[in-house]
Amino acid sequence: MPDTRPSPYFVLFNEIGIIHQLSRTLLEERLPDGLLSSHFGVLNHLVRVGEGTTPLAIARAFQVPKTTMTHTLGGCVKHGLIEMRPNPDDARSKCIWLTSKGREIRESMVAQAATGFEGFAEHFSEERIETLLPVLTEMRQFLDKARDAT
Amino acid sequence: MPDTRPSPYFVLFNEIGIIHQLSRTLLEERLPDGLLSSHFGVLNHLVRVGEGTTPLAIARAFQVPKTTMTHTLGGCVKHGLIEMRPNPDDARSKCIWLTSKGREIRESMVAQAATGFEGFAEHFSEERIETLLPVLTEMRQFLDKARDAT
DNA sequence: CCTCATTAGTACGATATCGCACTAAATATA
DNA sequence: TATATTTAGTGCGATATCGTACTAATGAGG
Q1: How far is A53 from chain B (nearest CA, A)?
Q2: Which amino acid residue lies closest to nucleotide C25, measuring CA to C1'?
Q3: What InterPro entries does this protein map onto (chains A, B) (predicted)?
Q4: Which of A40, A149, B57, B138 could form a disulfide with B53 if both were Cys (CB 3.0 to 4.6 A apart)?
């Protein structure tokens, strides 16, 4: 009788996949019109890490192929959330900046999402999350390196 | 100066999203030809939970829309991994069964993936994962309920 | 029985994702 | 400096995802 009970690693990645799916859906339900969680992710990233980074850097941050990020950024531009300027240091490259509209939208999206996660925050205290984060971050970094090693 | 440092909840879902992305890519790199992680997920689900369930039940398990699951199951059928039989209890419904090929492929996929996660398993012991899982499962269940409450 | 509402699955269309191939610029090497 | 290699971003095509609307079967209430 082969392994009917899979290793905890499969369970882990399975749970993570489902949580991702659920949180994404939950978020997108509360976003205005055509905005997706990927757009939200980009806006958040720009605020957190700082504006003026390149598309490739953002793609790496989210670990998605660069063509995917090209598409996502195109969506953000179309929505008027970001602006793509030439990179003064490298003519092949671009620099991404938030527009004031992008900044506003992001603010309201964070607020929206916060209310959406209210119930969640009641059940899972910040402290509990904070104890969880280091492990997840470590995993992310490890997988990240493993990917480079290909 | 508005919240440049986002709540840990955003960080949490961000990390989970990236880990999902990384693990999925890592897995799919090691799968044969046209097989996707979603197919792998279905096969695993059938082995773990038991065969003979319905498409809708599987869709709910992965928290994806049923039309998505229709498509995924179609792919599995096309690859000869599963078989869709009529549901004797409900003529609208179907029952999903693994083919022997599906069982074989799943076995070898598990083996493949296991070697892929070798390095990961070295850094993150089973014990460590086991302590992590209850929280994640609780989160999944909570978000699950929150979704139903819509 | 006979509506009427609900439910399982699907067809279809829109769009997101992503591999591959390409261009242009930068960098390394001779 | 001239040439080769690497790198940033994009166009294109294939396919995955998913919302909407539909069909057929079930179940509920008369």
Answers
A1: 17
A2: A92
A3: HTH_MarR-typ, MarR/SlyA-like, WH-like_DNA-bd_sf, WH_DNA-bd_sf
A4: B57
